[in-house]
Specification:
66% helix, globular
Length: 362
Amino acid sequence: MLFALFRPLADQFILFNLFRYITFRAGAACMTALIVSFVMGPCVIRWLKSVQKQGQPIRLDGPERHLVEKKGTPTMGGLLILGSLTISTLLWVDLKNGYVWPVLFVTLGYGALGFWDDYLKVTRRNTKGVSGRVKLLIQAVVGFIAAVWITSLARGPIGTALTVPVFKDVIIQLGYFFPVFGTLVMMGASNAVNLTDGLDGLAIVPTMIAAAVFTLIAYLVGNRIFAEYLQLNSVVGAGELAVFCSALVGAGMGFLWFNAPPAAVFMGDIGSLALGGALGAVAMVTKHEFVLMIVGGLFVVETLSVIIQVFWYKRTGRRVFLMAPLHHHFEKKGWAEPTIVIRFWIISMILALIGLATLKIR
């Protein structure tokens, strides 16, 4: 919105020339989302407390201390993240850019699904919301629409191809299967972040780290000069997603202010499903789906821990982990919550550095 208003005035007023630069608008989007979060946060939390009364239902089969320490804490704090993210993005992004809209579509579509899921949990006073099959079906439909949308915007054969990090000349042409693959990426990322969201601050910081990495990736692949220098596959128009990802970082920081232990509000599925879907959509546009698996490796491990636990228990009747997802395993072993959270943050930072290294190692 601001880009459309002030960009034409750049020739008359030199200050407005800043709006031409994605780097300036990305920084401004981050700060705007952070400020909006700080302003909206107390009001949103008070409203959630007033309507939820008893807060988020706590799993009876989860770690025992959760029944005491987390009782009464409201959920659906993802409203704060999505609100500040959307406002900031619409203010600072070029609204004529085609890639922005399918990414927002996935983010808000998955967010709406998460809202429904959280609403059912709160109103029914149990941890069962939308059934797993219905949730996966809706995710698949929303994701496939966005994947086809993104594919239609891409130019050249790279639009339906899968690139491999490090190996610059390896391009796997998926053709008509690419939207299906993109759908799986978005669904996988969405559910992975959702499974990781179990402790105060555990999911939001790795999400912010991944968003920061993809802020840089989107900028580089959207800039022909930098893309050629780094021997990346250029994606015309993808640079505007740097503004979106930067706004996501700002929204995440604002939410973390209120979610820091002890949390005043939980993210809920409205936040975790939306954030994972957003990262998956950006990875699809920028052709860095494999890099998302590296940068978001913590989410991958958390998801694998659940898959392994369920598979092995059904086969043998025994558990591999004391409890899944993995962070609950360490809780059962007696690790303090801040210890688990901070160590997982450190792991996410290391994985982000490895992911960034793939941009240079060709």
